[in-house]
Specification:
Layout lengths: L1 H42 L4 H4 L14 H9 L2 H31 L5 H10 L5 H14 L6 H5 L6 H11 L4 H9 L4 H12 L1 H16 L3 H6 L8 H11 L4 H35 L1
Length: 283
Amino acid sequence: MKPNAQSLNSEVRRERTQQWAAGIILAFGGLLVSIPFIWMILSAFKPESEVMQLTPSLLPKDFTLENFQNLFLNMNFSMYLKNTLIVVMWSFVGLFLNAMAGYGFAKFDFKGRNKLFFLVLATMMIPGQVTMIPVYLILNQMQLTNTMAGIVLPGLVGAFGIFLFRQFMSTIPDELLEAARLDGASELRVFWQIVLPMSKPILAVQGILTFIAGWNSFLWPLIIANDESLYTLSVGLALLKGQYGGNFALQMAGSTFMVVPIIIIFMFFQKHIIDGYTISGMK
């Protein structure tokens, strides 16, 4: 018994050593990856003279918020922020449209359902750049170019979101839905009060990804909008780089304002993202 106990203890110690070694290596690698972001964030609070000095320092010696003030007072970043939030808001409307489509594919038996679903999946193989010109021409015929509607409409629904919702909602028991219908609940009520509450894990995943996609929207607003009053934060950041290419402190402030919300959301909700993909893939 003693040799077995000793071998078990040595195996446990070996596993703990390996875990500690892996943790140290991953922490070191994470620190290396984080250095550019840390430098960017700290440089946003430095004056331009301190950023350009020959012996750079990591921590700001003269802490200042002047760069952020210039962004919102002189660079129209408040307008870009408003437009970005509008895009994000409508993206969440599209999130529920994706959920409704996924629910239809998962729980309704209609003619050609599987073929139509495969057709939806096939659109995932088409690069977005291929469809930009046709979509632009359609919106131009509808006189929606250079409008906020033209910016948000093409991104309301997506095949990937429909696929995730369909995969998850197909696991909801049909008996539960049938019981609600027998009690007199309408299909809309079944969807809002039963299906959506049971789909919180995948809603959390899609909500996070929807926010990130809306917050980072760049190429399509740049193409469809000719008026600067419709530009988003990403487009405004590109304009900032072109107009103030020599002001690195100002660029750091703009990049920080753009990136930090995404980093915070990912840090707090990365568990939901991983769990959601795992659940959808398993079921």
